[in-house]
Design goal:
675 residues, mainly beta, five-stranded antiparallel sheet, 0% helix, 42% strand, elongated
């Protein structure tokens, strides 16, 4: 027989590199001397060459009689470092970011700035280096870029920080190859502004496209340094007067008298001049002057017209006074222009006159009421007179007022007198209750009999309900007034209840050299009507001489209206020594108010006074005619010849005058009307 000895399969061991770089070949070999080789990749040779990473298995002596053995290796293919190239901007504007990136797919990244990510963000100029696959088996690559940061273009605004009221200013950005964007939306290098505010600007460099930070400039409206002197036009003999410049703590005053205070006291007539300097800016006003004349007041007629109701100050000026017949006589006034130092009013009606409110009841809820009683002077059991009586509640505002139920808070229930100074404007009624006057003066003396009332305010309803209920009248006294003054012949009929109510003129604070309108109102004892109560009223006019003596006169007075303005003659004075157009006052004056303009004539003259816009257009004629020597006062309300309200701004008042002895006089004054 023949005996065959087959070899036993050798131990399976694969030799060769298991880690290669991308592009290299791993030469793998099985053990020598085997009958057969079977690789998992399909080859049957002892050795194979591989370039792809993977798991490589080998079977030695597959299907041999004496058995087979198996083994395997894993081959790793490491990437070769990619070419190092940094992408991203290398020039940026200050404040921008450069996004720098290395090549995709590297094993690792190491930047000179310390980051290890593929991409980094930089805002600072510098040299940025990158190492790709640092310390890797298959090698590394290096690259770098230089980043440049371009500074922004300059942003600075030149131009004024203050502009005059009604003026303009030019603001400009830097000059260069730039574009501009202002907060106003304008894109020019320079803009013109006419209002106070903060203006901002951004500048863009056309060459680099870099944009500046925002710069700004605040522009304020310069307070005009306007000189104006306020004070009386007339100086009664032996008296003193106070003249004042514009009140501003930042201004320096220089008077022609040498004084440097804002106000001076004068003791004699004359022309007083002033200049005002702003101590902050150093700007000095044009000079202004005021002429004060020595005078004794010319008595004006004591009789006056009530003039209500009218539409001068609605709703008060339209309030009804339906019981004026209860005022039977007035001295001085419609019953005669004589005076013993008192204003005396005689009352008569079917009920006693109302002395005031003695109690105020406030209903806060169904179970809560507040009752307040006020001091009163009871009506005497026998008709008589009382000096300075108590009138009950005399508050003019709040829940505790002593008023009736008429419009706008009501009228005082007690006998009350209102005073208006008519020295330079005989038509002035500013002190009247109907014009908003709050300085009512209670009667100083009452004679006869009277009654009081209770004022109830129900605050549980909206609007609050106010009612007045008067106490019953005492026994009728007819014209028995006790120790009153003799009755004037004009008192007329007797309806049952008479009274005399009077005010001491020397207790009214009247100034020597001035004339006044004295307006009063008196309630009767019937107040439960829808019109707010039964009320009578009347007025008179008086003048006060330099020695303080009250002067009344029974004559007519002259009021000469100007064209488009109100004109009134100033009280008689010595003739002025020269032509003069006074500065208007107040100046500036507010839109919708009035300003006063005075002009002086040394002799009979033809005068025109006109108002012009700053462009030279005539907008109003205040006076045009022949006037006697003296001082005249005009008022202008800011309207044109058609009555249309003009816009705020600077206006010029021009006076032209001619007379027998003069070749012509011209003078202008600037006037500022503000919002």
């Amino acid at each position: 027989v023949d005996v065959t000895v087959n070899p036993v399969a050798p131990a399976c061991l694969i030799s060769g590199p298991t880690t290669i770089c991308q592009g290299q070949t791993a030469h793998l070999c099985g053990p020598a001397g085997a009958l057969s080789y079977q690789w998992s990749s399909g080859e049957t040779t002892q050795c194979i060459d591989v370039t792809v990473a993977g798991h490589y298995a080998l079977t030695v002596n597959k299907d041999a009689a004496c058995g087979s053995t198996n083994c395997a290796v894993d081959v790793t293919v490491n990437p070769v470092a990619p070419a190092c190239l940094i992408s991203g901007p290398t020039t940026i504007c200050q404040g921008q970011t450069a996004h720098l990136c290395g090549p995709v797919g590297a094993l690792s990244y190491q930047w000179s700035s310390g980051e290890t990510t593929q991409c980094i963000d930089v805002t600072v100029a510098g040299h940025y280096a990158l190492t790709v696959n640092k310390d890797a088996a298959c090698g590394s690559t290096n690259c770098a870029v230089d980043v440049t940061v371009i500074p922004p273009p300059p942003c600075a605004i030149s131009g004024p920080t203050e502009i005059c009221c009604g003026g303009t200013g030019q603001l400009c950005g830097p000059d260069g190859n730039y574009t501009y964007l202002w907060s106003t939306g304008e894109i020019s290098r320079c803009i013109v502004v006419n209002a106070a505010g903060t203006y901002t600007l951004q500048v863009r460099n056309v060459g680099t496209s870099c944009v500046s930070t925002t710069c700004s400039q605040t522009v304020t409206m310069r307070t005009p340094v306007i000189c104006d002197i306020t004070g009386p036009d007339l100086l009664p003999i032996g008296q003193t007067a106070t003249l004042c410049g514009n009140d501003n703590h930042d201004w320096i005053y220089t008077w022609s008298t040498g004084d440097t205070t804002s106000c001076i006291t004068i003791t004699e007539p004359g022309t007083y001049r002033l200049k005002v300097t702003d101590r902050v800016s150093g700007r000095t006003s044009q000079g202004c002057s005021k002429t004060v004349y020595e005078t004794q007041p010319t008595p004006i007629p004591c009789r006056c017209s009530i003039l209500y109701p009218d539409s001068s100050n609605c709703p008060r000026s339209l309030a009804p006074f339906n019981e004026s017949k209860i005022v039977r006589a007035i001295l001085p006034g419609r019953s005669g222009c004589v005076s013993d130092g008192k204003l005396k009013v005689w009352y008569n009606d079917e009920k006693a006159f109302g002395m005031g409110i003695r109690r105020v009841v406030i209903k806060n809820s169904a179970t809560d009421s507040t009752i307040t009683d006020y001091p009163t002077t009871p009506s005497p059991a026998t008709p008589g007179c009382v000096d300075h009586p108590s009138f009950g509640a005399t508050a003019q505002t709040g829940d505790q007022v002593g008023n009736d139920t008429a419009v706008d808070g009501g009228r005082p229930e007690w006998p009350v007198l209102y005073v208006s100074d008519i020295t330079t404007d005989p038509a002035n009624r500013a002190g009247d209750w109907q014009q908003g006057g709050t300085g009512g003066i209670a009667a100083h003396r009452v004679c006869g009999v009277w009654t009081y009332g209770i004022r109830r305010v129900d605050k549980t309803v909206t609007p609050n309900k106010v009612t007045i209920s008067m106490d019953p009248s005492p026994a009728k006294n007819h014209w028995n007034l006790g120790s009153s003054d003799p009755l004037p012949d004009s008192v007329g009929v007797d309806e049952g209840y008479g009274a005399e109510i009077s005010w001491n003129l020397n207790e009214l604070g009247l100034q020597p050299g001035h004339s006044y309108r004295l307006y009063f109102m008196i309630h009767d004892g019937d107040q439960s009507i829808a019109t707010g109560g039964d009320v009578g009223h009347g007025c008179t006019r008086v003048s006060v001489a330099a020695n303080g003596q009250v002067v009344v006169q029974n004559a007519s007075s002259l009021v000469t209206p100007g064209s488009g303005a109100r004109m009134v003659p100033v009280a008689a004075a010595s003739a002025p020594l020269q032509f003069e157009l006074g500065q208007n006052r107040p100046n500036p004056f507010r839109l919708g108010s009035r300003t006063t303009i005075t002009f002086a004539l040394p002799e009979q003259s033809h005068v025109s006074v006109n108002v012009f816009s700053i462009q030279g257009q005539r907008v109003a004629t205040l006076a045009d005619g022949s006037f006697a020597a003296g001082v005249r006062t005009l008022e202008w309300n800011g309207t044109d010849a058609t009555g249309r309200m003009l816009a705020p701004g600077l206006y010029v008042c021009k006076m032209s005058a001619s007379s027998v002895n003069s070749n012509g006089f011209r003078q202008v004054r600037k006037m500022m009307m503000i919002q």
